[in-house]
Write a structure and sequence with these properties.
121 residues, alpha+beta, hypothetical protein PF0899 fold, 3-stranded antiparallel β-sheet, 6 strands, binds zinc ion
């Protein structure tokens, strides 16, 4: 299950970013390209298991966003976004397509609460 490895990578990035800092992570924003073919439920499940390794992360919520595949056709010049891999230009059907985005995977933002205690429930 490659979602587990991806979730581990996400948790590692967050923990590296935090260092020794005392805080509570509330949300972790992750963007992943469609070509990663991530099953979101599996990713969330793995993240929920892995986050328990650090109490700062234990209550964190995963905010997952898919990056569409973006390409430019070398034949007709069209630029387009698609949500799955066909490899063909949707305008002219050419396979001579340059892919510009859709292969990324990164932690975009980490929302932390830094011990300033607002009574928020
Ligand atoms: Zn085309």
């Amino acid at each position: 299950m490659h979602e587990y490895a991806i979730a581990k990578g996400i948790v590692d990035v967050v923990l590296t970013t935090l260092g020794d800092r005392e805080c509570v992570v509330k949300k972790v924003w992750v963007k992943a390209g469609v070509t990663k073919a991530i099953v979101e439920d599996a990713l969330r499940f793995s993240f929920d298991v892995l986050k328990k390794q650090d109490k700062r992360l234990a209550g964190a919520e995963l905010m997952y966003q898919v990056i569409l595949l973006r390409g430019r056709c070398r034949n007709c010049g069209a630029e387009f976004e698609i949500d799955r891999i066909s490899g063909l230009c949707p305008v002219c059907g050419s396979a001579d397509v340059e892919w510009l985005a859709g292969d990324e995977l990164f932690v975009e933002k980490i929302e932390i609460s830094d011990g300033n205690r607002e009574s928020d429930g």
